[in-house]
Amino acid sequence: RDLTDISLLEAFVHLRYVDLSENKLQDLAPLSSLTHLLWLKVDGNLLSSACMQELPYLQLLSFARNHIKDLEGITHPRLANLSLKENQIQTALGLSHGQLFSLQILELRGNKLESTAGLNLPKLKTLYLAQNAIESLEGLEQLGQLATLHLRDNKLERLDGFCSSMKSLQYLNLRNNGISSFQEVAKLQVLPMLQALVLLDNPCSEEANYRLEVLVVLPQLQRLDKELFEADERQEAQSIRWNRQREDKVRP
User: Fold this and answer.
1) Alpha-carbon dihedral sign for residues 191, 197, 199, 204
2) Which of 24, 58, 196, 249 sits CB 3.0–4.6 Å from 76 for a disulfide?
3) Model-level pTM greater than 0.90?
4) DSSP state of 223
């Protein structure tokens, strides 16, 4: 509706669900009186900041397709689902970890992040970071409940930064990065629950015996690039692993 002014909403203090998407809003200050809000979508506006007065019951918040450059001022204590996809965010270091202790789903796809530093949210279960410019993985130690991590279409060449404290991570999508060696893939051995991995469109996926080599270093995997491993692949990978271990022991 090309709205630029939502001051009329200040009077509707009991509103629970508000969708203001696809307008021309630059200011959400009138929403501060809507203290009963549970659900707010403001996708496709002209917002340059996600900063708002704290809303005590807000559970879902979507700022997709705005002009937001940082994560400062998001402090809603019951927020479980936050989307900031397709903005211009360059760093996550402004996240208010102390206030976002209920956040379970964070969507940051299509931004300008170069690092994962600042994303240490202990209750987070699903994290979308595809289509950024991420070159390094940092500050992931607190993500003990994270089960799903999307890092497709980034600039990762090394897989340092994963750690054994990420004990719930089951699905990891690394499609279309710059991972060229199976030595890098082997660094994922620290993830005890990893079951599904996507590595298509990385240089290593063009190597001979690609599936076999991944299974040799990650024997717990159930599927690679969404295809389940067959029993004969597991047997062959196990045989290769044993032979290499034997060679390593013999080598002076």
Assistant:
1) positive
2) 58
3) yes
4) E
Cα–Cα dist 233/222, whole Å: 11
User: Please, which pLDDT band fits residue 237 given cuts at 50, 70 and 90?
Assistant: very high
Percent of the chain clearing pLDDT 90 (strictly above)? 92
- Using an 8 Å Cβ cutoff, are 170 and 145 in contact? no
* Burial class, 184, CB count within 10 angstroms (exposed 0-12 / middle 13-18 / buried 19+): buried
Give residue-wise pLDDT tens across range 176-220: 999 999 999 999 999 999 999 999 999 999 999 999 999 999 999
Could you tell me the sign of the dihedral formed by the alpha carbons of 84, 89, 92, 95, in that order? negative
H or E stretch covering 60: strand 60-62
- Amino acid letter for position 184: E
Sole residue written with tokens 């509103």: 15
Pairwise CA distance, residues 47 & 62, whole Å: 12
- Please give the radius of gyration of the chain, using alpha carbons only, rounded to the nearest integer: 22
> Tell me, what amino acid is at 144?
G
Main-chain dihedrals φ then ψ at residue 175, nearest 5 degrees: -60, 140
